UniProtKB/TrEMBL annotation, chain A:
Domain of life: Bacteria
GO biological process, one term: transmembrane transport
UniProt record similarity statement: Belongs to the ABC transporter superfamily.
GO cellular component: plasma membrane
Localization, UniProt: Cell membrane
A Pfam family the protein falls into: ABC_tran
InterPro entries: AAA+_ATPase (IPR003593), ABC_transp_ATP-bind (IPR050319), ABC_transporter-like_ATP-bd (IPR003439), ABC_transporter-like_CS (IPR017871), Oligopep_ABC_C (IPR013563), P-loop_NTPase (IPR027417)
Keyword entries, A-Z: ATP-binding, Nucleotide-binding, Peptide transport, Protein transport, Transport
ABC transporter domain residues: 9-255
GO molecular function: ATP binding; ATP hydrolysis activity
Protein name (record): ATP-binding cassette domain-containing protein
Membrane-protein topology: Peripheral membrane protein
SUPFAM superfamilies in the record: P-loop containing nucleoside triphosphate hydrolases
TrEMBL record, chain B:
Domain ABC transporter: 10-258
Cited SUPFAM superfamilies: P-loop containing nucleoside triphosphate hydrolases (SSF52540)
GO cellular component: plasma membrane
Name of the protein in question: ABC transporter ATP-binding protein
CDD domains, A to Z: ABC_NikE_OppD_transporters (cd03257)
GO biological process, one term: peptide transport
Alphabetic keyword roster: ATP-binding, Cell membrane, Membrane, Nucleotide-binding, Transport
Subcellular location: Cell membrane
Family to which this protein belongs: Belongs to the ABC transporter superfamily.
Membrane topology, from the record: Peripheral membrane protein
Lineage: Bacteria, Bacillati, Bacillota, Bacilli, Lactobacillales
GO MF annotation: an example: ATP hydrolysis activity
Principal place of residence: membrane
UniProt organism field: Lactiplantibacillus garii
């Protein structure tokens, strides 16, 4: 069934190295492949330093990838040479940032922040149209149109994140990369922003790449999840499946570390340790589809073990290959 | 001290901040006790006053803060009345603090061994050599690998999780009676967070410290706390044992907080966000400060401030819903589910909770 949907983004063997060839070479993203289907939310989780943010930035082409291919809406991103093509690409993909305090220019009024993309891409007919568009956007994200002549410091963290969302929506993108959009917000406000993002997704047919370390929130918002560690994706699958039946040992360990707001559960918590050395044995590994739509990075000799786990979890019957 | 089991007793505390816009009433009549050896979690949104409360225990309030009223009793003496010089003897020795951001709470120009040894030399009068030797023991205790090789390193040579271990080592090196941890794991990854929380629990058992744990992460609270106080708009609105707060909450704000967290089994759909934003404490609302955001607000909530109603010997909540004349309301579904669980937990009687916590 998933194959019938349209892929909006294809990432093939993306590599993003820094300081290539030097002693301090960093392989921030190392051979990462995944697809994102139109209209879905793909959650990318991992600890700090796992490369999830770098992956997001490489997709929007803020870096020149070391190797690999990024295909957005059928076009190879690295082959967008003219300014016009790049312009159009950047209109279709927008980003929402983590820190609502640092990502809004403190010297610009809200209306100018929101309209910056509209101006750059010439999306407004005249001044009145520009004002109307900004006011509509503010309303869409749950702010008052009177707010448009204020400055960012006059808003709370949650309101600022709404301004950031309005700015991203201003150029009518198809695809939004949200890099830890709620980490800096209070719990009660986090739910407001997540609900807003979900609502907008349905209304405007948006596709999200949701990058975060808060696994419970990622699971809640995402259709599918990719788990990153040391620059590699170790497991990809439907959100519920990855959560309830993780196949890779790292995913198991990560999920076991998430604190749950239930004292009884916490008293009986058993944290699963993860032995990193297993990844370092220089065996050749690739993403293998263990259960339908559920991939694990595995070497050939590990495949039977993962298949057995999937069988035990009831994800596949023994006979299907 | 009213009760010898209490390490700290805070009574009727009121703190205002003088700002250009007027007086911000940050803490509005807060009272609580810290029992010996327990972990008390204070939860609430930013601006609810949880950090201000604990900073007042350390005598670390900003210059524009004014303590209008109240007392903070520690060892039979009122901390508020102490001079800065006296506070310097208490701070770091009897009451220590761990801050949120391990990147900024260490001195970047000082070797970590020296930073851990410093309080020993200041408070206990140890010679440098002895102090460094104890610092080394402390580094081992908080789980820094190869402590001998790293004692002369600088903070930038450590990862965030390791830095927070060093901050904990500094805070605990004098074996303080009270440890205040202000969002100690918020800046860390979940796996590192789990390690640091385990470390804190382990060290608490070893050196018998009482901990005040400030956080907005209810998951962390569920794992760490013995008792929980919920703060909103400068007041404590509900307090009780961790089971009482998580399984039998009474205040609509506590309901809202628990309800807005996705648990691992939350089905997709809409999260129950708390609408609106916290009130402006320049001009705090009359009555129950949460009324404007509450689905359960009654007329009296906007007229008169609710007193604490007793739910059990250890559980109190300031909401008019508990008044005998209040109409019966049905809490959100998630809360009803939790209250059912609570009722089931009560049946095997008290010893259950004790044995469970030991494992």
């Amino acid at each position: 069934m998933p194959d019938e949907r349209k892929k909006i983004l294809e990432v093939h063997h993306l590599k993003q190295y820094f300081n290539v060839g030097k002693k301090d070479e960093v392989r921030a993203v190392d051979d990462v492949s995944f697809d994102i289907y139109e209209g879905e939310t793909f959650g990318l989780v991992g600890e700090s330093g796992s490369g999830k943010t770098t992956a997001g930035r490489a997709i929007i082409h803020l870096y020149e990838p070391t190797d690999g291919q990024i295909i957005f809406d059928g076009k190879d991103v690295s082959k967008l040479h003219t300014k016009k093509e790049m312009h159009e690409f950047r209109r279709e993909i927008q980003m929402i940032f983590q820190d609502p305090y640092a990502s809004l220019n403190p010297r610009m009024k809200v209306k100018d922040i929101v309209a910056e993309g509209i101006d750059i891409h010439g999306l407004a007919k005249d001044d009145a149209d520009r004002t109307k568009q900004v006011e509509d956007l503010l309303e869409t994200v749950g702010l008052n149109k009177d707010h448009s002549s204020r400055y960012p410091h006059e808003f709370s963290g949650g309101q600022r994140q709404r301004i950031g969302i309005a700015r991203a929506l201003a150029v009518e993108p198809k695809f939004i990369i949200a890099d830890e959009p709620i980490s800096a917000l209070d719990v009660s406000i986090q739910a407001q922003v997540v609900n807003l993002m979900k609502e907008l997704q349905v209304k405007q047919n948006l596709t999200y790449l949701f990058i975060a370390h808060d696994l419970s929130m990622v699971k809640y918002i995402s259709d599918r999840i990719g788990v990153m560690h040391y620059g590699k994706i170790l497991e990809i699958g439907p959100a519920d499946e990855v959560y309830n039946h993780p196949l890779h040992a790292y995913t198991k360990s990560l999920i076991s570390a998430v604190p749950v707001p239930d004292p009884e559960f916490e008293r009986n918590r058993k944290q699963v340790p993860y032995d990193e050395s297993r990844e370092m044995d220089d065996k050749k590994r690739r993403m293998v589809e263990i259960a339908p739509g559920h991939y694990v990075r595995a070497s050939e000799d590990e495949v039977p073990m993962y298949t057995q786990r999937a069988v035990d979890a009831g994800l596949v019957t023994e006979f299907s290959e | 001290m009213e009760n010898p089991e209490n390490v700290i007793e805070v009574r009727d505390l009121e703190i205002n901040f003088h700002t250009y816009a007027g007086e911000v009433k940050a803490i509005r009549d807060v009272s609580f006790d810290l029992h010996k050896g327990e972990t008390l979690a204070i939860v609430g949104e930013s601006g609810s006053g949880k950090s201000v409360t604990t900073r007042s225990l350390m005598g670390l309030l900003a210059p524009n803060a004014e303590i209008k009223k109240g007392s903070i009793m520690f060892h039979g003496e009122d901390i508020i009345k102490k001079s800065e010089k006296d506070m310097q003897h208490i701070r770091g020795k009897d009451i220590a603090m761990i801050f949120q951001d391990p990147m900024t709470s260490l001195d970047p120009t000082m070797r970590i061994g020296m930073q851990i040894a410093e309080p020993l030399m200041k408070h206990k009068g140890l010679k440098k050599k002895e102090a460094i030797a104890q610092a080394l023991e402390m580094l081992k205790l908080v789980g820094i690998t190869n402590p001998e090789g790293r004692i002369n390193d600088y903070p930038y040579q450590f990862s965030g999780g390791m830095r927070q271990r060093i901050v904990i080592a500094i805070a605990l090196v004098c074996y303080p009676e009270v440890l205040i941890a202000d969002e100690p794991t918020t800046a860390l990854d979940v796996t590192i967070q789990a390690q640091i929380l385990d470390l804190m629990k382990d060290l608490q058992n070893r050196i018998d410290t009482s901990i005040i744990f400030i956080t907005h992460d209810l998951g962390v609270v569920a794992g760490m706390a013995d008792r929980v106080a919920v703060m909103y708009a400068g007041k404590i609105v509900e307090y009780g044992t961790v089971d009482e707060i998580f399984f039998n909450p009474q205040h609509p704000y506590t309901w809202g907080l628990i309800n807005s967290m996705p648990t691992l089994d939350t089905a997709s759909g809409s999260l129950q966000a708390i609408p609106g934003t916290p009130p402006d404490l320049l001009d705090p609302p009359v009555g129950d400060a949460f009324a404007a955001r509450s689905d359960y607000a009654m007329k009296i909530d906007t007229e008169k401030e609710p007193p604490f109603f007793k739910v059990s010997d250890t559980h109190y909540a300031a909401t008019w819903l508990l008044h005998p004349d209040a109409p019966k309301v049905t809490p959100p579904a998630e809360i009803v589910r939790r209250q059912k669980k609570f009722a089931a937990m009560q049946k095997p009687a008290a010893p259950f909770a004790k044995t469970a916590s030991k494992e």
